[in-house]
Amino acid sequence: MFKKILVATHGTEGAKKAERYSYELAKIFGAELHGLYVIHKGWSSLIGIEWLHSSHARMEFYRYAESQFNLRANEVLESFKNIAVDIKVTTSVKVGEPTEIILEEARAHNSDLIVIGCVSSVRSEEYKARISMKNLLKFAPCPILLANNAPAIIKEGGETKFSNIRAFIGSNQ
């Protein structure tokens, strides 16, 4: 059913739930996983006009901030790869608008399923960008799974049952 699963993650609790769920689905279906971390393009707008007087300081700050975002992204993706050691996993870090990047990556990897986490009731200290669900649903090239709560995949009498699914939405394609 699913051969290539894209999971968008950024290290928050909701995203970690999506990671675990995508891993369980990949085990059941023998699918490959692609972990995606999107660094929102808006981070560079954090520099205000007070930095204009020193291009050197501005560029140093840019380089430092970019290195920290990439460091965090790589930590999150390494952690994801460590839970899925028995499955083929690829990862990528992209800078851009999260919804657009998720759609581009789903197409580029010929994904059969996109898995994302739901908004958590516990506010994360991580910088996170909101996904435009309207556009994601409208333009997704494949079904989207929103992982709610910790994953629970139950096998009863040879039948696999999925629980904790907020929404399973077919694509318009």
Q: CATH top level?
A: Alpha Beta
Which second-level CATH architecture applies? Answer: 3-Layer(aba) Sandwich
* Number of structurally distinct domains: 1
Principal-axes geometry comes out as globular
Number of helices: 4
Please state the CA-atom Rg, rounded to the nearest Å: 18 Å
CATH topology: Rossmann fold
The named CATH superfamily: HUPs
Order of helices and strands: EHEHEHEHEE
Structural class designation: alpha/beta
Count of extended strands: 6
Q: What low-confidence regions span 5 or more consecutive residues with pLDDT below 50?
A: 164-173
- In percent, how helical is the residue content? 25-40%
Give a written overview of the molecule.
- A 6-stranded mixed sheet has the order 3-2-1-4-5-6, sandwiched between helices.
- The protein has 4 helices and 6 strands; from the N terminus they run βαβαβαβαββ.
- It starts with a strand and ends with a strand.
- 37% of the residues lie in helices and 29% in strands.
- Mean pLDDT is 80; it is low at 164-173.
- It is globular, with a radius of gyration of 18 Å.
- The protein has 173 residues and is α/β, with parallel strands linked by helices.
- The longest helix has 29 residues, at 55-83.
- It has one domain (4-169): 3-Layer(aba) Sandwich (Rossmann fold).
